[in-house]
Amino acid sequence: MSDVIDEQDELFDVFRLLLDTYTPAEAIKKLRLFSTPDDVIKRIVDRHEREVVRIKEMREPPSVVIDNYETWYAGPHPDDKLWPSITAGLAKDGWPQTSIDSLDGSSTRVVSLLQHPRQSSFSTRGLVVGYVQSGKTTNFTAVMAKAADRGYKLFIVLAGIHNGLRRQTQARLVQQLVEPNPTLWSQITDLDHDFRPTANPASFFGKSNKTHVLCVVKKNATVLRKLVKWLGDASEYLADCPALIIDDEADQATVATKSINPLIRQILNTLPKSAYVGYTASPFANLLINPAAEDLYPEHFIVNLPQPQEHFGTEVLFGRYALDGEDPNDVDDGYDMIRTVPDGDVELVRPKTRADAEGFYPTITDTLRRAVLYFWLTTAARRVRGGGNPHCTMLIHTSVRTAVHNSFRDPLLSLRAKIGRNLGDIALQSELRALWDEETSRVPAAKFDEEFVSFQELEAELPGVLRDCRVVMDNSESTDRLDYENGPVVAIAVGGNTLSRGLTLEGLSVSYFVRSVSTYDTLLQMGRWFGYRKGYADLPRIWMTKELEDWFRHLATVETEMRRDIDVYMTEGKTPMNFAVRLRTHPALRVTAAAKMKDAVSASSSYGGQRVQTRYFRLESEWLRQNQSAARKLVNEGIRIGSVEGSPTDGRFLIRDVLSDAVLEFLRNYQFHERSQECDAKLMAGYIEKRIRNAGTLRRWNVAVVGKPAENSSEQFDFAPGIRVGTIVRSQFSSGSDYSDIKTLMSRRDAGLDLEGITTSTTEGDIQKARAAQQADAGLLVLYPIDKVSEPEPSKDKRQPLNAPEHVIGVGLVFPKPKDDDSTVAWEANYISADLSGVEMEEEDFSALEAEDV
């Protein structure tokens, strides 16, 4: 019996080896040539299928895949050459085994979604969604290694639109793929030269050349035209040349561009066997391509890479808002690492209009000075700690214009010289010490398991830091670029687009960012501060305006919601062709460039089954008093006709069976802040009226008042005779010129105030089931009297007192999920834009796409 099992194991190994050269169907035919019995072949195939199913059903990373997609790749072999070299290199660099295993799993999943290289012809379209600065390059390098180990021959990497990123990507691929196995590769680009046609392309693709071909090119029209022609000249040799095209930053220049998009498609059309895989952290444009068009929509698969451990992402730094079904109290505020640049400082560091750019001279404002001084202090502290990333970088990003970048050189050099001359000055020492003490107290090193560094320890390192610090203008016109390849760097980098996409700023610890942009993807990609901060996780700081901070927090919410949609679609059996991820809009930002949204449609969503709540408020006396009046009128009307439960000692009241007329009147009188798009009084009133008219539901409501026990509260609020509660505390998370954002109002338990059997541990799903059983036709409206001072708890280090002139009335509404189709009473979330005529919103500069390559 054991001999039979051993023979089957040997045949299974033979079958796996055959799969390197043949498709599964061809490999089965080869087994039959060995006179292998059909029942043995079936057991071998079943065993292989079990391995493939394990890959196919991987939970991490989540993926959405086209129907009936054959998976042939079951993971690396022990005798592979390229993937083992990568793992050895990563282990040598200090990667923990858990991270290597995660990379192995995610890259295996992507390779499993490519076509078998021995298929007679194929054209695959896929998308891999990662996080900014999270290791996407390492992931696609691993995918390339595994694909090469299985027989893919040509590898074209489209590496952004600037030379800096192309060169950085070439260097990484050479280090991880070529240098460990130089005899297996032929390179047709190098560190210093983009693609230049060779005289005999056939020599790369003829049967005599067994090497893999590597080509790393910019998304530049001149370069890509040369590549298209060169591949065309080799067309007779490409029939048996499986090719993998990796599009790094796949949302940039690829989608809806007049030159680059058609050229990429020409490259794919020239290759009979091609797999195109886009990689991006901001896939908004890619997911808005028309799936039915002859374009680069990821019709075969979308893979959602998990956020790696210790990665600093949007949510970690800025916090986010709660999504549907989440308890706001469970959503973190983010780290206390954001510092505010006053609006009045912006025009001192960035010209207001294009005409002002020439001759502009920036001012070293108080906030910019603090940012620069803090950068030098962090660099000194990192030298005291030792180890970790040897580079230390600060980013100043205020404008896309090179003239503005260059104008910063002299003021920054003057500041460095002045600080260097006066390090012994008592006043300067006091300023530096106070700055360091304040920052280290706001973000303690122990919170990140880092070593605390006192001012006395770092002070001795400051002269050397100032001496080593360079001021670098990194833009399309400068020759003095950031270079991390020749020893440790200490640099203040001033730049724009060349620093805002893909390029890694090594050791980035301080950013001063007031760049004005108008789209999600551009804004997200400019966050070069995302990534890993091993050894100095407590030290990064970002100086930006309150408006930008609010935008990034909104963006963190969009990101999380988008990724959750991908995960949900995976569990629902959706395919990319019926995949319609929702991208919530913002009043001052577009999702992506207008040209990339030409195939987008307004997404409709019913209020049915939703919970909406106010979190933005105007802190103006008249505005607040009007809302108090609207709330009192509703409660008085409610107690006149409904039944009341609760008492002042409970701090909570519930008024059942309030007529919808009273709720509609409240919606007409209460003022919702315009930033709360889901809390649109007209849309909600219209929805209620349609439900009453079409289905006879929402005729009655339950109205709750949620506060503290009156007798234990120094501040109380009277809604009506006998309806008195203590005010609750909701400190503000952030504020702008005309709003205050409390972020959290309504808890999950509050959404079931009118239901029986609801506790703090009841899930959102169970609350919805209970509502369907107990209050299927009634809505719930909850009023919250918020204390006008609202001091935050000491542990809430990102919060500040509300300090309103009057007590604030917060509102939450819970709509029951209807039993019928609710689409006829939907509200629409449209792409809308604020009036930006007073401020120049700088878009990405795409002149590099058409420029002659240099």
Please characterize this protein's 3D structure.
The chain is of the alpha/beta class and 854 residues long. Helix content is 36%, strand content 16%. The strands form 7 sheets. An 8-stranded mixed β-sheet has the order 1-8-2-7-6-3-5-4. α1 (2-21) crosses α3 (38-56), α9 (221-233) packs parallel to α10 and α13 (366-385) packs across α18. The longest helix has 26 residues, at 546-571. It is globular, with a radius of gyration of 30 Å. The model is unreliable at 823-841 (pLDDT under 50).
- Kindly state the number of beta strands: 29
Note the beta-strand portion. Answer: 15-25%
Structural shape? globular
Rg result = 30 Å
SS-based structural class? Answer: alpha/beta
Q: What percent of residues adopt helix (DSSP H or I)?
A: 25-40%
Mind summarizing the main beta sheet?
A: 8 strands, mixed
Distance between the terminal alpha carbons, to the nearest Å? 68 Å
Spans where pLDDT lies below 50 across 5 or more residues = 823-841
**Helical run tally:** 25
Strand arrangement, major sheet: 1-8-2-7-6-3-5-4
Mean pLDDT: 83
